[in-house]
Every structure is written in structure tokens, then in C-alpha cells.
Amino acid sequence: GAGVSQSPSNKVTEKGKDVELRCDPISGHTALYWYRQSLGQGLEFLIYFQGNSAPDKSGLPSDRFSAERTGGSVSTLTIQRTQQEDSAVYLCASSVNRDPGNSPLHFGNGTRLTVT
Amino acid sequence: GENVEQHPSTLSVQEGDSAVIKCTYSDSASNYFPWYKQELGKRPQLIIDIRSNVGEKKDQRIAVTLNKTAKHFSLHITETQPEDSAVYFCGGSGNTPLVFGKGTRLSVIA
To answer: Residue B46 pairs with which residues in a beta bridge?
Structure first.
């Protein structure tokens, strides 16, 4: 079946512009994560959504970053006033239930963001 | 929240040798520890996981061990093959979202 879908796959933007990254999780998956992967670096946790609960925003690096999840499905990660250090691959992942121990994360292919 | 440390950051082994990657975690409430493999230009994929009610789990050439007292866990790959070359991430979660270590770049030299 369809996996986690992210768009766009690549985004080049000028410093100071806002960007929106989209994630379509696997149908029926209630948990959704955003991670950031800078070049050659690890998977940095950004934000976590679970059903209708308030999201865990503890990983967002600054108030320029925000995310929404509408209707418990599609999520949008917004970065305002982009900076060059925001350049990275942004990965979305979903799982069928709240506890990743009972359902592994399925990752999308990511959006490669380049801020010039 | 949880903090996961991973070592080494890079590892080179000869084909056929074993590879070991080690991780430590900080939150004693964490109870789930997955390992993901990310090949160049691809998405991370789960290769094996372990829960805190067991000490070891094996799947063919891959095994993971967990020491809850010391709060560390390890990935063991035996009889390494060139296709094992990738970046490996360990993760930990319990009452907090799943967080990962910084990754280990494994190179298997033929």
C-alpha cells in the first residue's frame, strides 16, 4: 500500500522567506513525527502528534518553526524567516498507534530544504 | 526528556568480520529501543528492536542486547557483507517521543 508521502521532495528558498513542508501519513496511522537531518548528521526530533492530543513540541529549535496536523491526517511543518542553518532534510514518520514499541515508525523520503 | 548517545560515529570492518555499535540512554522509564538502517539517499528503515522486558533478541545475522541497569544497548552484526554498509541509528522511548542517537556510519570493506 501507499507509504508516507512528503512534498515537495526538494525546496530551494531564499534566506528570510517562509516555507511549508507537507506530510501525508499512512492511512489510519494516528502518530506522526517530524525529524530534521542535517548533512551527515543524526535524526533530530522536532515535534510529535498523537491523535487529538496536544502535540509534543519540545524538539522545535526556535519559534520560527511550527507544525499543524489537520483532521488527524495531513501535517504541515512551517519555517518562517528561513536561515541558512535551516538547510537539511526534513523527515516525517508515522505509526499506527501511540506506542512506537507496538508499531514501528514508517518514514517518508523527506524534503531536502536548501536556504540560499 | 530522553537523551540517546551512540558510539562510534564511524566504523570500518572487513567483510566477514563482526560489527558492534553501542548506545546509552538517560531515561530509566524508556522501554523500547529500535535500530534503524539508512542507506545512502534513502529513508531510515527498522531492522530490529527490543523491549525492556528482554535482554537479547536475534534475527539472523543481527542481534541486539540490552542492559537496563547500566542503561545501555548494543547492535551486533555478524558475518558482515558489503550491503550492510549504511548509517545505523539507535533510538529510545518510553513516556516520551522516540529520539535517536547521532548515528554510526558502517563501512564494510570487501
So the answer is: B36
